[in-house]
């Protein structure tokens, strides 16, 4: 059987389309919306409009890059949630129209499910070994920070999550205080390269079990900068690299502490990461470093598959196709969409 899926991702501010054929990703096109930079965060109304402008050319390019025509498509997949409703509606409506016109199957994908399964992306030139079940996934994005116990493609349980801000939000909010544009995570990462991660100490939260908290860090960085600037108005410019390195180090250590604990308590040593913050160089090297200490088998996806992309939606859809988990036309997008709810009806 030939399974060719066109996948759409439009949950936030990236419009992306990918084609997967028999489990191999043939194309992955991403249009990132620069319009939000000057506002210091994603403006939902502008995001929806940009998706409307981008979706047709992005899909066209994904099909062309893959060398696939619309009549070759067996199913169209789209992100149902979580995300910004107006943004999700663009991808979902496109998928519904396409499915009706081409009389093909439709597959809804949960964005978090896709971030986990990004570790299974294979292309004609990329074939990293796939993670073995069961594994633990540290899922760190702009909206989520979770440790997920993954037993199978469609069987996952969240065993830890943030009680307030996500790790990506902590990066972005600290970046904003330092004067970087949105999203600031990658700027902090770049700037941290030249800094001393031990230059400044920030407290780490004491939270139960495998849960996280990042709102305290944000506040302590805010007060720290305010106090330092009282005596030196150029404190940020003069110490930017050290501040970035120290903030990054603190976020990474907080993430790693709970991941180590989760691995020890569950006895699972197969460890993967996913989500935009998994592009962070400090986190990537910490996974490798801790992996050597704790005898983990680690999987770190290429950076382009950690931030939002449709290739991960395509892979999740491919495994759903194999399990015959198809979606009806009357299904609507969900701004809030937990993995528990998703798996309760789609597997
Ligand atoms: O997964 P993603 O692309 O979108 C969501 O689902 O939220 O994650 C975006 C988040 C943003 O907070 C962004 O600043 C962060 O990932 N991010 C990074 C890096 N690249 C992206 N954070 C730290 N270092 C990076 N290199
Ligand atoms: Zn994401």
Describe this entry's structure for a reader:
The structure is a single chain. The protein has helices at 44-66, 85-102, 111-117, 167-177, 185-192, 215-231, 235-266, 281-294, 310-322, 339-346; strands at 4-9, 14-21, 24-32, 75-81, 105-110, 135-140, 145-152, 155-161, 270-274, 297-299. By secondary structure, the protein is of the alpha/beta class. The site of 5'-O-[(R)-(carboxyoxy)(hydroxy)phosphoryl]adenosine has 19 residues, from α4 and α5. Zinc ion (ZN) binds at residues 111, 115, 141, 275-276, 308.
Going by helix content, strand content and strand pairing, the class is alpha/beta
Query: What ligands does this structure carry?
Result: 5'-O-[(R)-(carboxyoxy)(hydroxy)phosphoryl]adenosine, zinc ion
* Integer average pLDDT: 97
**Order of strands across the widest beta sheet?**
3-2-1-4-5
Order of helices and strands: EEEHEHEHEEEHHHHEHEHH
Global shape: globular
Q: Unreliable runs, pLDDT <50, ≥5 residues?
A: none
- Strand percent estimate: 15-25%
Biggest pleated sheet: 5 strands, mixed
How many runs of DSSP E, i.e. beta strands?
Answer: 10
For the terminal residues, how far apart are their CA atoms?
Answer: 22 Å
Radius of gyration, whole Å: 20 Å
The tally of helices reads: 10
Proportion in helices:
40-55%
Topology:
Blueprint lengths: L3 E6 L4 E8 L2 E9 L11 H23 L8 E7 L3 H18 L2 E6 H7 L17 E6 L4 E8 L2 E7 L5 H11 L7 H8 L22 H17 L3 H32 L3 E5 L6 H14 L2 E3 L10 H13 L16 H8 L1
Helix pairs in contact: 1-2, 3-9, 4-6, 4-7, 5-7, 6-7, 7-8
The structure holds 5'-O-[(R)-(carboxyoxy)(hydroxy)phosphoryl]adenosine and zinc ion (ZN).
């Amino acid at each position: 059987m030939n399974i060719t899926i066109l996948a759409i991702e439009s949950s936030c501010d990236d419009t992306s389309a990918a084609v997967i054929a028999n489990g191999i990703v043939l194309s992955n096109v991403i249009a990132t919306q620069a319009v939000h930079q000057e506002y210091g965060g994603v403006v939902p109304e502008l995001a929806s409009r940009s998706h409307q402008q981008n979706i047709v050319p992005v899909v066209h390019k994904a099909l062309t890059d893959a060398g696939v025509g619309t009549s070759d498509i067996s199913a169209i997949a789209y992100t149902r949630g979580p995300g910004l409703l107006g943004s999700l509606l663009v991808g979902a409506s496109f998928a519904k129209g396409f499915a009706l016109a081409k009389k093909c199957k439709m597959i809804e994908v949960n964005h978090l499910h896709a971030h986990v399964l990004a570790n299974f992306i294979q292309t004609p030139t990329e074939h990293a070994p796939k993670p073995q079940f069961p594994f633990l996934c540290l899922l760190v994005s702009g909206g989520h920070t979770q440790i997920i116990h993954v037993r199978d493609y469609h069987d996952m349980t969240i065993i830890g999550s943030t009680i307030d801000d996500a790790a990506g939000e902590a990066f972005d909010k600290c970046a904003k205080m330092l004067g970087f544009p949105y999203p600031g995570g990658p700027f902090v990462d770049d700037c941290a390269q030249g800094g001393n991660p031990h230059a400044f100490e920030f407290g780490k939260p004491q939270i139960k079990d495998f849960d996280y908290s990042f709102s305290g860090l944000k506040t302590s960085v805010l007060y720290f900068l305010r106090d330092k600037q009282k005596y030196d108005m150029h404190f940020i410019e003069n110490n930017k690299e050290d501040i970035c390195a120290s903030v990054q180090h603190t976020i990474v250590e907080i993430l790693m502490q709970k991941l180590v604990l989760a691995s020890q308590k569950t006895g699972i040593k197969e460890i993967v990461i996913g989500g935009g913050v998994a592009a962070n160089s400090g986190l990537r090297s910490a996974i490798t470093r801790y992996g050597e200490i704790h005898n983990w088998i680690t999987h770190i996806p290429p950076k382009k598959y950690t931030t939002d992309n449709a290739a991960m939606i395509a892979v999740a859809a491919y495994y759903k196709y194999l399990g015959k988990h198809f979606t009806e036309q009357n299904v609507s997008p969900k701004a809030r969409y937990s993995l528990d709810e998703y798996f309760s009806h789609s597997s």
